[in-house]
Here is the input.
Amino acid sequence: MSDMPDPSRAPVPGAVVLVADDDARRRSTLVETVLRFDPAAAILEARTGEEVIAHITARRPTIGFVGMKLDGLSGPEAIAVARKRGVTIPCLVLVAPRVFPQWQELAQSLNAYEVLKTPLDPDHIGSLLAANARRTTPTPLLLASSSDAARTAVGRVLDRCGFALEVDEADSGRHALKLLRTGGYRLAFIDTNLEGLDGLELACQVQTLNLATHVTVMTTGDPEPIVNAARFFGVDFVMTMPFYARDIDLAIHHALDLRRPYLLHALTAPPAPTALVRVGAPLPARRSA
Here is the structure.
């Protein structure tokens, strides 16, 4: 695993970055901060909603810092129009002076990665640039379950999570162990009810082999006994099926040592319902049926 990229490093030089805001000073601050982290970045500046649409369509930026207020169309309106035309920003960061609950819902509807509050924090901007680079770096992941339905459900969420995941599937414990022994997986989602070698036994093998694989164990039953047992096997999380898409996002951010975005934090902070339990942390209150 020593050849894995360090997520704390600056993004890959040459990133195409959209900076859109009606405030010239704020645009300048964003541009200066981006270039500090990536001197070779191609910066696309926009003051109006129409310019945002034109840049997204012509240059396909991988990350965009888009203010709520623009001349003409607002930032969210411009993003929505571009989406209707079939083009999106893979890592959308909305810039706002304050974050109201309805803006959180708006950001989710636009599939935004983060909301960046003003005054701007250079370290936060830098962490978003690094996260964008890490999200676009191919990351091997193992999905092990003897249930076709479970693999399909989890795989569908992984496909939409925004990370460049290279997913290998295994339908038995023995097959999963064979794949894991290559040492090439940063993450593994493992079902407890694997045929041949159950999920906890498999996690124990991962720990014995001293693999740098972050393991999330999946279960359809009571998570408490699984969590208690998983403490001894180096498991990061236990996830109860059915799950929330945000639970998988949280597990991936943890495994890749990425700062949890404000939006993800807001979605997963108590008392928000969750199917994910971090091993070693107190168990959440049981969800109502």
Observations:
- The chain has two domains: 16-135, 139-278.
- Residues 1-12 have pLDDT under 50 and may be disordered.
